[in-house]
Amino acid sequence: MTSAGPVDDDGDTGDSGDTGEADDPLVGVIIEIPQPYAIELTAWRAEFGDPLARSVPPHITLLPPTRLARDGFDPLVAHLRTVAAAREPFEVLLRGTATFRPVSPVVFVQLAHGISECEMLQAAVRSGPVSRDLDFPYHPHVTVAHDVAASALDRAETALRDWEGRFTVGGFSLHEHGADGVWRLHERFAFRTG
């Protein structure tokens, strides 16, 4: 992989699910963090010197970067539509910081509410045509500093200790990693309503 994307900046090496060819699409599935929280967390990430601050939008990973066979897009999209149609919107409360150190040089904003919903959702997303193992146990979070100096990680952990954001998750999105190293939105999948 030439650069990290919206789903591999948190200590998951991403390509562990790679069983395809190098020119097969690399995809990931995320819950996008809405505004105004996204712009604020991006600014903080840049403040901590994280080089991915402007190229990786704040998100909660559901499927880390996974190599997909060329003919796998249609089955994956159909699967994700089915997963989304079976879910209802849920609330997420982001509050405070934690770290994966010393295992991985990551500081993140924690989920105080919505953890079990994210766990069930990611398990459903990773089933079917994208079944794969993870490098680490699933832990929903929003990365705010990764692969920066220890002092910057310390600052991130302290600066956002009391940070909080609440929003309703109404769906998730599929992204594809381009040959230019940029992650692009492929499709959004809305949960059922009513």
TrEMBL record:
SUPFAM superfamilies: LigT-like. Residues 1-24 are annotated as: Disordered. One of its GO terms (molecular function) is ligase activity. Keywords: Ligase. The keyword DNA repair does not apply. This is 2'-5' RNA ligase family protein. Coiled coil: none annotated. Residues 7-24 have a biased composition (Acidic residues). It comes from the Bacteria. InterPro entries: 2H_phosphoesterase_YjcG-like, Cyclic_Pdiesterase.
